[in-house]
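Weekly sync notes, structure subgroup
Attendees: PM, AL, DS (notes)

Item 1: joint prediction request from the bench team. They want all two components modeled as one assembly rather than separately. Inputs as received:
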Amino acid sequence: MVANMTEDQLLVLVIKYIKEAKRTALQQLLDELHPYDFAQLYRGLPEKHHHKFLTFITPDQIADLIQELEYDLQIEILQQLGIERSSKVMNLMDNDDLADLLNELSVDKIQEFLDVMKKEDSQNIQSLMSYPAETAGGLMTNQFVWINADQTVRQAVDKLKTYAGFSENIYYLYVINDEKKLVGVVSYRDLLIADLHEKIEDLMFNRVVAVHVDADQEEVAQTIERYDFIAVPVVNDENVLLGIITVDDAIDVMIKEATEDIEKLSASGKDIDFNTKAITASFRRLPWLILLLFIGLVSGSIISGFEDTLDQVVALIFFMPMIAGMTGNTGTQSLAVVVRGIITNDIDRKTVIKLIFRELRVGLIIGITCGILIMLIAYFWRESLVLGLVVGFSLFLTLIVGTLAGTIIPLLLYRIGVDPAVASGPLITTINDIFSLMIYFGVATMFLTQLSGL
Amino acid sequence: MVANMTEDQLLVLVIKYIKEAKRTALQQLLDELHPYDFAQLYRGLPEKHHHKFLTFITPDQIADLIQELEYDLQIEILQQLGIERSSKVMNLMDNDDLADLLNELSVDKIQEFLDVMKKEDSQNIQSLMSYPAETAGGLMTNQFVWINADQTVRQAVDKLKTYAGFSENIYYLYVINDEKKLVGVVSYRDLLIADLHEKIEDLMFNRVVAVHVDADQEEVAQTIERYDFIAVPVVNDENVLLGIITVDDAIDVMIKEATEDIEKLSASGKDIDFNTKAITASFRRLPWLILLLFIGLVSGSIISGFEDTLDQVVALIFFMPMIAGMTGNTGTQSLAVVVRGIITNDIDRKTVIKLIFRELRVGLIIGITCGILIMLIAYFWRESLVLGLVVGFSLFLTLIVGTLAGTIIPLLLYRIGVDPAVASGPLITTINDIFSLMIYFGVATMFLTQLSGL
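Output from the run, pasted for the record:
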């Protein structure tokens, strides 16, 4: 029945069950839902029903629910449940999600929960919480099934059956030796086809790809993406297996990283979404804006350095916004190519030199095209050949410089270990403003005698 | 032995095997590699060895290799192999990868390959090739294992064993009825724990999440991400199961979409990477640049409309680049928030109104902050209170307008069905240039009598 109901129909039914206190019916209905749909349902449920809803469902179901929710709803549920029932739910949660949740709480609160947890779970969680959030250690879970190389397929299958409910990842079985070092991996597909008496060591794949526990989360995501893995093992310096990271966590990392790239490219500040408060969003955006304000004033002082030129040729001002804008635009275009390219390419000297020369040629081509175009426009609009030549030649030069600045600045940042995406579009635009004004007024001043009086 | 060798050591060994014509040793070595490492090895192998290498390895290995390579290397291999051996390799490839490869060839060439393929394979491929590339149909494979609801766990396990080598996805088993309609799904974990005599219909999860064959690839990726799936089934209007899409293909879509967002936001044109030729890159970038050039000239004509004001107050020019730049910057920041927010939020009237009012408040806060700052700077730098007030008040107004433009323009585009990311940073910047100049010179003209002579 549940199979074909819409979200709204489900919600109506759930509220009905809550009002009529039909525990079993409610629990059965929820068992038919995916955790994501379950969480959507909870988000749609009026707040006055939350308490009853939580008392009616099983700890297992609460664990599923809480793992899908955002932080503030998680905290609300923990408060509703009280410490004892919360700890029961926490025992059922995936370790990586639980560690993330606990990391958001105060030290006192964390200790309170750890104290009532089973000792083994509490130790597992504490060891996970010791890794920095954006590393492999911070992403991994230590709930996984491992086996010794000298065991048989039958033993492996039996072990899997025992742990199937407990383990998050049931796609690969990692093989370790007596020192707990990772020596191989067997896929479930291989186990399925294999003879029950075969030994794991004869079956396993021994060139295992693993990530180091200190590896950056971006490297983890890249490994999973490149190898099309469902999960990747995490090891320490001694190659001891510490945990696994599953593909769904890698996807979350990729989405986060892509969003961060866009945030940086637009200098929009970290973590602003539709729900961020105006005052918070403003304070995240202001540092960049104030920096750019001062850089923008540099442009102003450049112009004031050419006050004499401007006084004599007022017509020059009309083309100023266009030239400054175009230089910023071409810089932003080059920047985007570099920022995305760095993710997928290995950056060596050869690649860098090749890229810079490519962009130089791009700058030449678009410089010639746009330069000739604006020369004709300036000539026909203001009826002065000299002005046309000055504007056209300036645009030609600024487009080359702007293109190269948009390429070289992010590459230099990458070289010195700074994320090149911080060379945001606005920053490149503002820096290119300065270059373009210097070139434009420089060229104009050279031709001043021919231009004056326009 | 292979387990701990570096990429370079492997390459040296491979070349040695090729030179000494040690087929078996080469094949055994390659069997120990992941397809990604295998492909990296092939990319590193000097071209003179390619032909021998390809003749030494098995069709199975070539199929693994070809699926990991980029298009031009794929074509090179097909040419080296000749039509007959190519078709043998194609029979071993995953259907979705094969369909993508064939789609790149000429119609004649496609027909040639289809003719020599097994009839069943050829039909499967042709049906896959009929779906548009960026839809669920274009992403899916039709190699998967299905089962009827009234069969038992034992029958399911037997079927899986038979097809394990053939099926790309061995994580879920999809359940269909007599009309081939999708009615349920069972995970391998569930099969593993279940009693062999149980019926599939008693075990299966019947609220199956599926995507429609015409669904956009972004929707497919979102579904897999939200539900943490390893694969998602694809159905038609009648809910008939047509194929499956695996998580690795969804990851490729996400990376592509994020890159496209950045390309659009920076108006950098489609598909420019480190290897694009300069002339191609230029022609992809020029349309945007030329459009922006003309919009930039509008700014120029606005200035020329205020020629009298400018003649009287030359000092106004010094603050012009800063004011225009800041308006563009705040617009770009707002744009980034909207573009990323649209991906993760449901956009209804309430959300839109809430967002616009939030950004209005953001505009007010940053407008007041930066306005006061620049007022003080202008006052102390140029020693004129009126100029300070004019510049400060103008920046206050332009920041509010710029913030709202960066919010409302992409929302309007989204409303009329245009991808809001085309409202790129450069476009918003250039449009905001126009707004800012109108406001700045407008305000200045109002205070002209107090300003003149500065």
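Discussion: Residues 146-258 of chain B form a domain with the CBS-domain fold (CATH 3.10.580.10).
Action: AL to compare against the crosslinking data before next sync.
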